[in-house]
Structures are given as structure tokens and as C-alpha cells.
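Holo model, magnesium ion. Inputs:
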Amino acid sequence: MAKVKTTYFCKNCGSESPKWVGKCAACNEWNTFIEEVISKPSKGALPGLVDFTNSATPVSINSIDSAAHPRINLKDSELNRALGGGLVPGSMILFGGEPGIGKSTLMLQVAIKKNTLKTLYVSGEESEQQIKMRADRIGIDNENCVILAETSSHRILKQLKEINPDLLIIDSIQTLFSESLDSSPGSISQIRECTSELLRFAKSTNTPVFLIGHITKDGTLAGPKVLEHMVDVVLQFEGDRNHVYRLLRSVKNRFGSTNELGIYEMQGSGLREVANPSELLISNNDQDLSGVAIASMLEGMRPMLIEIQALVSTAAYGTPQRSATGFDLRRLGMLLAVLEKRCGFKLGAKDVFLNIAGGIKVDDPAIDLAVVCAVLSSNVDLPIAKNTCLAAEVGLSGEIRPVSRLDQRIFEAQKLGYQQIIVSANNKGLNEKEYGIEVVQVRKIEEVFKKLFA
Ligand code: TYD
Ligand code: MG
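Output:
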């Protein structure tokens, strides 16, 4: 019997070592090596692949026609946006996200929504019947969609040669296995081998490929980081499973900006594209409520208005509680300290709860001022005028600091019918007259309170 060959792989960067080592020499991480059974892939050609013995010839960069393969316009404007303006032929896209977030739903939607692309949807997780049930929920418009329940990469490549699709979707890369290796599906060497086989297919036939990938508990794509290096685009699907909003973020994009963001809402019949996120993130209450402030924030390049809710109450127990959902707790602590020290508000003996509506996480510093104002509004129990929104950072001395892309933030507020926006007076080149909305410029936090609660 042939001896079982094993080798060690670093979980973090995918580097290989013949024996176990405590520290990875490539990425300097500790305790990341795991043993895997392998046997080297045979050198023979894989089925369904073109012959790679033909060597390429160098060409002048000017003579290459970039317009020869225009981007494919998917019937999903949010996905097009996240990809940087459509799908590039021959590109490989890794689509990651936590279990149950809606990866399979979105990909199936791409496959069966009305388009002229012949799509092959390969599922290693669900049977054909299960996929059909899901497809019926979403609604099938594409007659050209083919479903294949298969996990062997060689058999998939064989089918690819016959079907010759315009778009390939793999759900998920962790379930595939290649016959050239003995290790089990989902192991690092298998993921790497299957990806490289599919990558060769994508590049040699100019077919775009979506790979669905699972995310581990610590938020990284399962499998080695090396997967992220191999693919052209890495998209991440995020969101709170208890909320309906899902953010599609681009983490890496060889053909576009990574600042683009797509937004979806999970409904009973699949994912709906959200063209105007602000209307979802602001609850249109008719009553004036204290403790609510609206911030004009940017997520990537996309401006949106978001509601911040705070509740300040007398601490029931000895130690006051501080809790924040969707906002950094340490930053909240810092802002409360600024209020205490610079403005003389006694919040030390109060419980403070902060919530960002819609279950999304915000790390844009421009919402600082809105957080501070929501806290104070709740503390003094006076509502902030409904037509006012805020966009500024708060510094440690209580100064109001400028934020990036103020123009976009102001226009978004104006578009949504706000009549007043409070910003820092230190924004350079700001011409208040340009806007159809009152732009109030402030320097100190005290000025804001006078404006809001006077
Ligand atoms: P799914 O795409 O299976 O998640 P993933 O592939 O990322 O693991 O989505 C699962 C969730 O989506 C499930 O909890 C139910 C919900 N869902 C809807 O709310 N509406 C729908 O139309 C579909 C298909 C799923
Ligand atoms: Mg799935």
C-alpha cells in the first residue's frame, strides 16, 4: 500500500511545511500549522481544460484592445455597483459571508433573474429539488439557467466543457474536492487546488466565475488567505441576521474601487435591491421624540442618513451601564468623557444606551456629533427638530472637526428634504450658498446645544 503523504499548512497564509512548526516563517503567526493528507496532483491535463503547452507571446500594451470584452451588465444594480460597474469577463469572484446571511439566495437570484446569460449553478450543499424550491420563492425568469448538484471538480470541469456556460456559480468552494488530492473536502489543500482548477477554466475560456465561500468565526474567509490572493474580486456579504438589511462590500477588486457598497433587504421572496438606503434607516415617526438624532454618514462612497437613538437614565445599580449597538463602545466612552469634562454634563452616574437603527455597524467618525446630540437630547428630554441632521467629528477638547466628502453628505440631506445640517466651521472651501439647505457651521460643542435646545 502506498504510504500516506501528509504535509503541514499554515491556516493563516497557506504556506506549506514538511513538518510541524510553532511559528509560520511566512506570516509570523503562531500555532497556525495543521496537518493534512495529500498526494501530489498528477501532472496530466485536467479534463475540460485547454492545452497550456502553447506559450503566450508578448504584445505591446497599446495594441491590446480593452473594449474587446466589455463588462457584463447583471440585472442587479447593487451587485454591478459592488463589482465596480459590471462583471468583467474571465474574472473570478470570491463571495464570502456568514452562514444564513443570504449568499446562496443572492447567487441563485443572479442565475435565475431575467438575463441572457447561460448560467451554470453548481451546488455542493443543496439538492436540485431544494434549489428549485428556493427558486420558486424568488421567481424564475431565466430559461437558460442550469443546475448541477456535484462536488467533484473534475466532473464539474467535464460538464463545463459540454455546457459551455456564460457564467459559472459555485456554491460553495469548501464543498468541492479534486481527485488529484487525497485530503478531504474543505481542507486548505483542496480549496486551493479546486480554486486553481476553476481559475484556469475562467481565464482560458473568459468565463466569469462566482465562488461562494464560508466565513469562520473570527470573520475571515474559511480556508487560507491564499484564496483571496488567487481571485480577482472579494465580495463580503454582511448584516445582522435579526435585521433585514444586508451590505455587500467589496474587500478587494482588481477592476474597480473597494469603496463601493451594495445594499439589499431580505424579503420573503428573496433579496430586494435598495436604491435609497436612507428611507430604510430612518423611522418616519410623526411625534418628536427625545434622544433621536440623524447623522449624514458615508459608507464607502455612498452617502446615507441614519438614525441614532440614545437613552440616558439614572443608574439603577452602583456602576452605571454603557451599552452601544452598531457603534464602538470605547468611542462612546470617550464622547461621554468629553461631555462631562468640557461641557459640564454630569453623566457619570447615568446609564447610557446607544443604538444605531437598522442593525448596521458604523465606523464613520462623522456620526460623532449626532451621537453626542442624541445623548444630550435624551438627558435633557428635549427633542431635536425633525428637519435637522448632523455631520461632524468631535475632538477630545470638545471641538467640532471637519469630515471628508462633506459635499456629498449635504446633498444627500438636501435630497431627503432636510432643512438644516450642522457641520464643522473648519471645512475648507465650503460655500453655504451653493446648497438649497441651511448649512450651520459650528466650532464648539456648546454652540451646537444652544442651536438645538435653546
Ligand atoms: P441562504 O441564502 O441560504 O444563506 P447562505 O447561503 O448565506 O447560508 O439564506 C438563508 C436565509 O435567508 C434563511 O434564513 C431564510 C432567508 N430567506 C428569506 O428570508 N427569503 C427568501 O426568499 C429566501 C430564499 C431566504
Ligand atoms: Mg448557502
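The chain has a mean pLDDT of 87. The pocket of magnesium ion (ligand 2) is lined by residues 103-104, 125, 171 (CB under 6 Å).
Archived with the compound record.
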